[in-house]
């Protein structure tokens, strides 16, 4: 049982109990905290408080007890996994958009992890079935997965040392500079707990960007991760005022060099995931010490959209 205490002061500004605890405990969603309060796990001073909307007074101490989560053992499932390359120690996979990497709330099965347990007998003995990094559900492209214990720990070390080269391609709104970088810390959004945002007290995050091509009012962008924070590229693109096309979560109004016509806008609406693809992956093989490099073509939906836009704007020059 974990226990957390918060001393109420003037910074809490007469806030609700659930909001105070959400700010203090970023690893828990607000709905989780509301349920804990409802179940009687919160106290104000020595009195149990079951109303999330209760507003503690300055000087009071709020205590929240968090029971240990009941672990759910992932099961092996026959899920199609596109394996680009593999040997005895690791495999390179090309993840489709729509596939969740790890089981979690609302996605207890049907994930990449469930599929790995099915195709690799050793996966059940490895942390997270050998998964050492992740892609968002609706981001496609390359991932490296360990098949042995020695490869797992070596890959984790390579990631910490930033020795795995990960290059993404994104189609963004507006025209970007030829080369630029965004170095802004990322943390949990203060009110929308499932999202990330630029936070002064967040974890350091650095993304390098390079323009590949201007296509009408859009830019095809190369994005290279220096760090690997959750939603990093999407948050940094939004921060630069060049949000990723078709990103339903991280978007904003931007001033374009000219507005897309109706036909182009209709084509953009057919893209049902953010236009972000893990295009390139390279590193020194942790067991053989040989350099390896892999590339992934755009999925059909993204490739067709690019071809349409190129054709449209080339014809209109």
Question: Hey, roughly how much beta strand do the residues contain?
Answer: 25-35%
The SS-based structural class is alpha+beta
Give the termini separation.
Answer: 65 Å
**Number of extended strands:** 15
Helix amount: 10-25%
Tally of individual helices: 7
- Write the H/E string, N to C: EHHEEEEEHEHEEEEEEHHEEH
What is the approximate shape? Answer: globular
Mean pLDDT: 92
- Let me know the largest β-sheet: 9 strands, mixed
- Radius of gyration over alpha carbons? 23 Å
Unreliable runs, pLDDT <50, ≥5 residues? none
Overview of this protein structure:
The strands form 3 sheets. Strands 5, 6, 7, 8, 9, 12, 13, 14 and 15 form a 9-stranded mixed β-sheet that branches. The protein has a 4-stranded antiparallel β-sheet with strand order 1-4-2-3. The chain has a two-stranded antiparallel sheet with strand order 10-11. The model has no long low-confidence stretch (mean pLDDT 92). Helix content is 22%, strand content 27%. A hairpin with a 2-residue loop joins strand 2 and strand 3. The protein is built from 7 helices and 15 strands. It has helices at 17-24, 30-38, 112-119, 149-160, 232-239, 262-269, 300-315, and strands at 2-7, 42-44, 47-48, 61-66, 83-86, 90-95, 140-146, 165-173, 179-183, 186-188, 196-198, 206-215, 218-225, 276-284, 291-295. With 317 residues, the chain is α+β, with helices and mostly antiparallel strands.
């Amino acid at each position: 049982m974990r226990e957390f205490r918060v001393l109420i002061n003037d910074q809490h500004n007469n806030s609700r109990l659930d909001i105070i605890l959400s700010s203090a405990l970023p690893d828990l969603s607000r709905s989780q905290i509301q349920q804990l309060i409802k179940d009687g796990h919160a106290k104000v001073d020595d009195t149990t408080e079951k109303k999330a909307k209760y507003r503690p007074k300055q000087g009071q101490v709020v205590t929240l007890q968090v029971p240990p989560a009941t672990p759910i053992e992932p099961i092996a499932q026959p899920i199609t996994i596109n394996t680009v390359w593999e040997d005895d120690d690791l495999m390179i996979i090309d993840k489709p958009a729509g596939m969740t990497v790890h089981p979690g709330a609302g996605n207890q099965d049907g994930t990449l992890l469930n599929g790995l347990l099915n195709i690799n007998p050793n996966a059940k003995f490895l942390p997270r079935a050998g998964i050492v990094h992740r892609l968002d559900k609706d981001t496609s492209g390359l991932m490296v997965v360990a098949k042995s214990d020695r490869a797992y720990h070596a890959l984790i070390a390579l990631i910490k040392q930033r020795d795995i080269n990960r290059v993404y391609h994104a189609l963004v709104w507006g025209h970007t500079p030829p080369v630029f970088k965004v170095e802004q810390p990322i943390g949990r959004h203060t009110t929308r707990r499932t999202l990330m945002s630029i936070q002064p007290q967040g974890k350091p995050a650095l993304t390098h960007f390079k323009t590949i091509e201007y296509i009408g009012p859009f830019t095809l962008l190369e994005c290279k991760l220096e760090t690997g924070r959750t939603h990093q590229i999407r948050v940094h693109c939004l921060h630069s005022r060049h949000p990723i096309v078709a990103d339903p979560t991280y978007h904003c109004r931007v001033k374009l060099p000219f507005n897309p016509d109706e036909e182009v806008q209709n084509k953009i609406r057919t893209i049902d995931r953010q236009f972000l693809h893990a295009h390139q992956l390279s590193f020194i093989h942790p067991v053989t010490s040989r350099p390896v490099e892999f590339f992934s073509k755009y999925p059909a939906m993204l490739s067709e959209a690019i071809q349409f836009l190129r054709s449209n704007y080339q014809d209109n020059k």
